[in-house]
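[09:14] KT: can someone run the structure on this one? pasting the chain below
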Amino acid sequence: MIELRMSGELICSHAACGEIVGFSAIGGVDHDPYENTVDKFFRIKAIYPAPWIIELPKELPDPIRKPLIASFESYWANKQLCANAIRQSIEALLDHHKVSRTSVKDKRLPLGGRIDLLKEIKPEFSELFELFRPFLNAGSHGEEIEIASLLNVFEALEIHLSQVFDTKSNRLDELKALMKKASESE
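[09:31] RB: done, structure tokens below
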């Protein structure tokens, strides 16, 4: 098989952006003797600055945001490293949800133990965090991670983060409570 390499610059086509990014990619050539065709393919291995894979709320605290940005950068080259960066962000998110990092015996709790505690503190979030667990563990233990699964984790996390940190949705809950209170008093 022929190995190809490519590098270059990309320019965002969004008129308000125009950001320039550098990238490198590896690829190859597929030859189909039956169809008598040759196809080149490439896979990006590095891109900087990396595009965000999900939208992050403006109000997202840095201890959650910074590992996520690192996950966007590592996504292209190393899926396990990417999952591990998401795990760091999830640990910070558990901190935000006031889940202890230590047990009653003052020993460090692993991610699974913290997710178990989340069930008591915020049961409405526990199912999602349980579903995150195998992918985040795979990243920490160097296991293979499917791209589609990783993108599903990103998307689910994006929705969760918008529910928790989006001030408009929080404000909507406040407005609903105020309207409910006003309608009860009338």
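[09:33] KT: thanks! The helical segments are 62-75, 79-96, 111-121, 123-140, 147-165, 167-185.
[09:34] RB: yep, looked fine to me
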